[in-house]
C-alpha cells in the first residue's frame, strides 16, 4: 500500500513537472513574446537607452512634469545607479492629466526621439511612458483598451494601482550619471512590485533561461 502511494506521488510530481515545462516553454512564450530577445543588453542598446532616458528626464524636468522613475529602471537606480544589464527597456511614470506633458513630449520629439504618450524610442532602445490616474488615496494605471497586447498582460495592467503614500513628494537618486526623481518610499514600492525577485540580484526574466534553440532571432551556434 505504501509503495502504491509513493508511485502515485511520483506520478503526480512528474505530471506537474510536465505541466510546468509546457507553461514555461510553450504557453508563456506565445502570450508574452519575452523569449525571442536576448537576455542581456548589447553595449549599443545600453548606450541608446541611457541617451533616451536622459532626454526624457531632462524634458520632464524642464517642463515641470510630475514624473518618477519606475519598475526596472527604478530597481536599476537603487542597485546599480544605472540600467540593469538584463532590463529590456526603460520605465518612466507620470500623471495622465498633467498639463505639462504635451509640451514635454514636443520637446522630446524635437530632440531626435520618437515619442507619444505611451512609448519613446531612440535607436535600438525604448522607454515605456506609464500614465497614472489620480484618485483620493491611490494612483491607478491608465491602460487603453485598444492597445494590442496579450490578455494576461492587459488584465494585470488594468488592475494595477499604487497607494499615494509610496510616491509622496518624491525624492532624488543618481541614475546614469544624473539626478532623477523617484518615489518617496521607493524601497517599499519595489518590495510591493517585486515580492520575490527584489531580493535576488540575478536575471529573473524567463528569456534569460530559455535554451537558445527556442529563440527565433539567434541560433545555438552564436
TrEMBL record:
A Pfam family that the UniProt record links to this protein: LicD
LicD/FKTN/FKRP nucleotidyltransferase domain mapped to chain residues: 61-98
GO BP field: glycoprotein metabolic process
InterPro entries hit by this protein: LicD/FKTN/FKRP_NTP_transf, LicD_transferase
Stated name of the protein: LicD/FKTN/FKRP nucleotidyltransferase domain-containing protein
